[in-house]
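Exercise 7b. Backbone tokens:
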């Protein structure tokens, strides 16, 4: 039998996590892409993505990050823009910059890490790919979005419709993006507006079924 304190820790670990109102989360997530600030994820004590056997991309413009990652940990990234490097993981699946339970270069962590938000999985109904491992899957399952407003529900329907569309038509994904769960999920967020139509006269927003060209335009916008 487990002691009360161990049980308390287990229960706390498995609690639902408030993910916030869906609509504003989508807007903030899209606005954060590519910025230095990155996604504002209330990770708490979770470090799952630092311990999930992930290859981290570092762009050639991330000079402060590249300066802090030892050269012997930087590998050329095939198929990505010149100068982009990959950082691998150790035999335990941990990022080599993960030291003493935390990121040793946190202030200068790669853009990939700043932008990573595992709420993209519950938002789209997708599961992390196999190589994302169980830690991220577990954490992603705990998020609970708030769907109180009509806009929250409409945007969610649009994100789900965009996800289905992109899973069926992977050729619509931006060039160079493999049809991995995380890239499909981010593309679905970006394209979701094409699955909604706002009628100025009535003030109503309703779902629509765009063609592939419209979706591609939304993705490249
Ligand atoms: S660089 Fe830092 S934030 Fe990114 S995976 Fe490694 S330890 Fe985690």
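Sequence design result:
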């Amino acid at each position: 039998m487990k002691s009360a304190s161990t049980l308390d820790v287990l229960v706390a670990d498995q609690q639902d996590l408030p993910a916030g109102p869906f609509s504003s989360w989508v807007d903030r997530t899209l606005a954060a892409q590519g910025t230095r600030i990155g996604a504002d994820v209330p990770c708490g004590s979770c470090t799952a993505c630092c311990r999930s056997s992930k290859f981290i991309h570092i762009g050639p413009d991330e000079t402060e990050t590249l300066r802090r990652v030892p050269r012997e940990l930087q590998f050329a990234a095939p198929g990505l823009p010149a100068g982009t490097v990959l950082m691998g993981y150790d035999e335990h699946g941990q990022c080599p910059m993960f030291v003493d339970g935390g990121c040793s270069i946190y202030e200068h962590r790669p853009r990939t890490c700043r932008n990573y938000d595992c709420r993209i999985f519950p938002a789209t109904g997708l599961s992390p790919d196999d190589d994302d491992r169980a830690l991220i899957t577990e954490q992603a399952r705990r998020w609970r979005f708030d769907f109180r407003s009509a806009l929250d529900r409409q945007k969610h329907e649009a994100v789900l419709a965009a996800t289905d569309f992109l899973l069926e038509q992977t050729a619509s994904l931006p060039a160079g993006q493999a049809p991995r769960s995380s890239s499909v999920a981010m593309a679905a967020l970006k394209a979701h507006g094409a699955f909604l139509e706002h009628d100025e006269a009535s003030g109503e927003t309703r779902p629509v079924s765009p063609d592939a060209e419209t979706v591609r335009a939304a993705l490249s916008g």
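Instructor comment: Confidence is low (pLDDT under 50) at residues 1-12. Residues 50, 56, 95, 97-98, 103, 105, 109-110, 113 surround iron/sulfur cluster (CB under 6 Å).
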